[in-house]
Amino acid sequence: MTTWTRDAIEALGPITDVRTTAAIFQVDPDTVYSQIRRKEWTATRVLRLGRKIRIPTRDLIAALYEPEFPTEPTVPSQGNHTENVQVKSLEPHSQCGCQLNNVAQVQGLRTKAGVTVQTVNTAGGAA
After folding, report:
1. pTM over 0.70
2. Distance CA 23, CA 27 (A)
3. Contacts for 104 with CB less than 8 Å, ≥ 6 apart
4. Pairing relation of β-strands 114-120 and 47-49?
5. Nearest to residue 20, comparing CAs of 4, 36, 37?
6. How far apart are CA 2 and CA 25, in angstroms?
7. How far apart are the first and last CA of the chain?
8. Residue 6 to residue 125: CA distance in whole angstroms
9. d(Cα 15, Cα 57) in Å, to the nearest integer?
10. Over the stretch 60-110, which tens digit does the pLDDT of each residue have?
11. If both were cysteines, with which of 16, 29, 61, 77 could 20 make a disulfide (CB 3.0 to 4.6 Å apart)?
12. What is the mean pLDDT of the chain?
């Protein structure tokens, strides 16, 4: 009986056959064949090449082992702004040096007919 390590599975190449896959999972090959035939095999992808059935070794490694380099969720970069990039005030940002000159804030007002939009300039009056 072969001991299947991660290195041994990677040494198989990009794909392997069902008998080797069954040996890795320590089950009877007929069990794997029948699950594939009934479309119940969910451990890996199944590649049908004519009459031959092949299993990607990358899928075997993913099913059996933790990833070597765990992926952490990435947070989008906010540039030089430490706060939310949406304008909350009309003050210039001291960290990046950008100036907010004559920026208008848009506010939506509800009416019976629907939504109308009113712009308010930096002086606070309606435009």
Report:
1. no
2. 6
3. 119, 120, 121, 122, 127
4. unpaired
5. 4
6. 11
7. 82
8. 69
9. 5
10. 999 998 776 666 666 655 555 555 555 555 555 566 666 555 555 555 555
11. 16
12. 75
Beta bridge partners of 117: 108
Least confident window among 4-8, 42-46, 62-66, 68-72: 68-72
Tokens of 111: 């009416």
Compute CA distances 45 → 3, 55, 108, whole Å. Answer: 23, 6, 51
Buried b (16+ CB within 10 A) or exposed e, 37-49: eeeebeebebeee
**What's the token pair of residue 66?**
């933790």
Q: The tokens of 18 are what?
A: 């069902």
CA nearest neighbour of 79 among 90, 103, 95, 99 = 95
